[in-house]
Design brief:
- This protein is α+β, with helices and mostly antiparallel strands.
- It is 63% helix and 10% strand.
- Mean pLDDT is 75; it is low at 226-231, 436-440 and 467-476.
Amino acid sequence: MIFVLQAVWLYIKELAGKDLDVMVIAKFLIYVIPELMPLVLPLTILLTSIMVFGNFAENYEFAAMKSTGISLQRSMRSLGVFIVLLAITTFFFSNNVIPWAKYNSYNLRKNIAKLKPAMVIAEGQFNEVGDQYNIKVAKKSGDRGQFLEEVIIHKKTANKTGNYTTIIAKNGELSGNEESDVLKLILFDGYFYDDTPPKDYKDRQKRPMTKSYFKKYTINVDLSNLNNVDLDQKNVSDKYDMQSIKDLNYSIDSLKVAQENAFKTHAKNLYTRTNFPIINAGVNVKKKDTLYKDNLLSLFNTRQKAQLVNLSLNTFKSTKQIVQSKEKNFKNSQIWLNKHIIALHEKLALGFACIILFFVGAPLGALIRKGGLGLPMVIAILLFLTYHFIGIFAKESSETGSINPALSPWISTLIMFPLSIYLTKRATEDRGLFEFDHLLEPLKKLFKIKSKDDEERKEMPDVVAEIIEEKEPKTPKLSLKNKQLVFKLQDDYNVYAKFSLIFWICGAVFVPLYFILKNNKLPEIALICIQLGVISLFIYLIYYVISYIKLIKLDRLVPSETGLSKNLILIILGLVLYPFTYLLRKNKLNNDISDSLK
């Protein structure tokens, strides 16, 4: 219901003010609902699996199952079979029902838009109104959008292609009512241009054009024929999202053949423009070929040289323009082909996504041990948004060719696949969602955070505490021959660490400056900043690695409870937030060395 209401609000502009009956609105909703299934179905499976298995764990039903020998996999088996059958059904649904729904929905909305063309005039783009006018407005205002600003109108000419009549006005107003078959457009303070070619050829050479100024100009558009629209008429059927896999395979093959033929035709035209095929036509050479080593232009006089140079420049310019215009056409054709490939693989990936998200949600519900619509709803929405946004970014990138279009529908599913294996394994072993003990203990010691056991030990009698302390291993002292090596390694580490800090700060300053200067239209200085930033970060990385090697050697000589070179959190933070880890390591290393030298 949430997604259906969202779809209604999305198309409310196309439905409002059209005097549509209940059956048309019902048809619209019936056609829109199947289009929502690729969004609704994965989210539904993820949410319900978390809720069901969360309820099992929260009510200790899993504990009862395990006590009777029923494992998590066995409890998921029947639902797993159901999800596989649902995935197969989803494939046939996406291959047959969704294209049918999009086909009917698109044609229905297209026919509805013809009912009241006054409502179709959108800002910032040309809108076809009637059979004679294309209208563009910069801004609409008023309670009904009847006041227009910066109006541009192209009037079509019967039996002629091209826009020969143009009307430009500063302001305009749409007048009339919904029951009228005439749309009255009143324009104020504008110009009328007409450069329709005359029938007489001699008059055409004069390039006549009519220009007139008006304070008020009224255009009446007859809508009587347009309002007699059959809402069940279906003309458009060639869009990629209206086709099944069989039709998409045929369309993809046709587009590839057409694209290949277009490339060959373009290459042949460029080759023909070079005049190489006819360069020796009519030349009868009886003498043997000779090698001419001087400049070829020296064979011609000054006038002929200038003509040859101008001819070459013009040829190159025209060829460059042809290549640039064809490049845009080839790019658009490639985007259109990629959209067909994406649509085909989306039908295949949807069923697999349902299976993968089930094996994410079911063990996740068993691990968080919460059912209902509280925490499971939050987790499901976060996971689904991650899955959905990854799919959107991959789809946008694949349309332009940055990512293989056959791979983009699978990327979000492939990212969720390792997560499903990890969660299923954790839930099977009855372990927590995450275990941070091996990471938290070093941090507790580093920041001297005392646990409950330490507090209890303080409350023990002194004799018991001494016995426990004697049993605990004490920190060994450094030998005399290693002290000199420790001091040398400490000095080397401090030097490399300081250089790492300096170059990290340089990189952290220059990289943001690149984006700031680029947005302020200073591309030359921005380019210098990004180059300096990349060089600084590269040198920082080298010094960081060298200092880390020195730290490993120090850890081998100086006993440390925290293990500075083995602490995963400090290693990760050291690459991103180096000043923070620099201070931590420096203080802790000094304390460890001073303790070892006592």
